[in-house]
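Changelog-adjacent note: as of this version, every example in the card shows the full chain rather than a window. The one below runs 149 residues end to end.
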Amino acid sequence: MTIHSDSDARLQELIDLPCGTGVQIVRWPQMCGLGDTKPEALEDLRQRLEAYREDRPLPRPGTQVPLEFASTQHVDNYESIAREFLAKILNIDFDRCFLSDQSSLTDFGFDEASLKRHHAKIRETYGIDASDLGDGNLVDIFERIRINQ
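Full-length structure tokens:
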């Protein structure tokens, strides 16, 4: 898969991201790449396109791609834990955000130092270690909290 240069009209740059630089495909807002630099963001986008292409064909260029929400089947089983966790750990109101089965700590734009602080707060609050969970999938964290209760 080739990602073209800045002159490619199918890509547009996202501006003023708090966590770095982003690029996205025009008319496909959920397909984006993030990085500290534009080349990193383009590489992230290339990897996401490759992963998408493994499961289904790419849409025709120029097509408006409808937004698809990830499943909430598993996260819905942890609503009470999620409510408390979001309030205590992330200072976020559960009723004012969307969580899916794929939601993770890294979705909240934490840098590595901030992620470490949140892992420490999770250990202090719930007595579990979630630092081995890679991106910090919330369903996996909620499962560990439930087991530890």
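Structural remarks: Helices lie at 38-55, 79-90, 112-126, 138-148.
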